[in-house]
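Session log. Operator J.P. requested a structure for one protein chain; no other inputs attached. Running the standard single-chain path with token output.
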Amino acid sequence: MKFKTVMILKAIICLGFGPVLLFFPGPLLKLLGAAFCAGAAFTAREYGAALTGNLLLTWFARNAEPSKVRQAIALYLCVYDAIALVVTLRFVLSGTLNQLAWAIVAIYLFFAVAFAFFISPKTKAA
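Structure written below.
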């Protein structure tokens, strides 16, 4: 898969979740089976801000040519998605989130693996 394609897919996912978490976190958290309180609203909005930052990064860097900068972007996104994968998986397995959250686990796994591919300077995919 091409770097540009992965970046666009990531931007679309971030566009779908970032604004929702920023402005309407309650319905999404309830859909996932999470308790909603003031602390959850704060955390969800902070995460919405992070997703909005990822949206901007992935959209504006989607055409980056192979370089050390592109490798740094891929490393950042790989680590970000890998950490989010572990955290989300922990909450799903503990029962804090419902079965719908497995889709989020799958999304994080996909992006962690996809961006790991672009960390190596030997990667030929554009």
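Operator note: The helical segments are 3-23, 25-31, 38-60, 68-93, 101-117.
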